[in-house]
Amino acid sequence: MIYAFLKVHGSGNTFYLYNTNDENELDWVHLTKWLCDKNNEGGADGLLLVLPSKTADAKMRVINADGSEASMCGNGLRCVARYVCEKLGKTHANIETMKATLHVKEEAQIFESIPTYAVEISPVSFDLSTLPMVYKNQTEIKHQIIEEFSPSIKFTAVSVPNPHLIGILEDRNISDFTHQEQLAQFLNSENDYCVDGINVSYVYPLKNDTIFVRTFERGVGFTNACGTAMTASALVSNLNGAVDAEVVTVYNPGGFVKCEVKQQNDDFQLTLIGNATFTAEYEIDIKQLDYSIIEIKETKEQEQYEKCINFVNKELTALTS
């Protein structure tokens, strides 16, 4: 039987997107592992399922490349937001996710004619039990050196609701992947700190309203971008004085986004704004656990996004030279 999938990306974080009324229609774990295999048209970082919801305009599930399920995905949510809004002929919608129903809306283009959407990132918690994470007898880790992780990097742990460990770095550290990779692999294998693993992001402040973020994503590895990680990084950078703007430009290996950080007492309102690019439609023949790609219909949207990448590279060169 032939099934139609969209290949999409937010900031280079690539997914297949599939709309279905039957949550148990296919073996999503087995299918996702096959779709994300880099030998199959470059693979992807995960599968986005768009499903009916009793409480919102649609429901989103996120299956990671390794078959695990994420509670949220900011980059994926932007793509689902565009799909749902265009399908319903609306400029805004509510999307049910694992932990919360989130508001999404069409936004002014972030770069030339690139489709752009703003999505709510919530809930936010610094309580280690929400990640979950254990460190000595602490209930929070905020801008703190953890000797077991690094003698010089200050870390903050936060769930949004995906679990994140954010390290603020100096220039000499951000260019070296080694330490981040070793720490992330350790925290995503059997360890005494993060029983379910954690996303590890290193952040380099560039200006009072601009940061660079690189993320090792739980269940995926190094990604071009992670939406919740970028938002969490903007929040942590704001709280610790690395930036002082309400709207933070976040550069990443896959492009850039805008993250809006608003705080009222202990309540945070976070918004992620960025591209929602549809690169191609795939027709895939699925026979039980046997898959084959029948046809690929590419769009022209990636060509436009490549202009954005060139812009980002020039900006990063100017800011770091």
Automatic annotation (TrEMBL):
What InterPro entries does the record tag this protein with?
Answer: DAP_epimerase_AS, DAP_epimerase_DapF
* GO biological process: one example: lysine biosynthetic process via diaminopimelate
Site: Could be important to modulate the pK values of the two catalytic cysteine residues. Where? 164, 217
Q: Which Gene3D superfamilies match?
A: Diaminopimelate Epimerase, Chain A, domain 1
Q: Which Pfam families match?
A: DAP_epimerase
What does the UniProt keyword field contain? Amino-acid biosynthesis, Cytoplasm, Isomerase, Lysine biosynthesis
**Catalytic residues, chain numbering:** 73, 73 (proton donor), 226 (proton acceptor)
Record field: catalytic activity: (2S,6S)-2,6-diaminopimelate = meso-2,6-diaminopimelate
**Major location (coarse):** cytoplasm
Q: Which family does it belong to?
A: Belongs to the diaminopimelate epimerase family.
Read off the HAMAP family from this record.
DAP_epimerase (MF_00197)
Name the record gives this protein: Diaminopimelate epimerase
Q: Which organism is it from?
A: Ureibacillus endophyticus
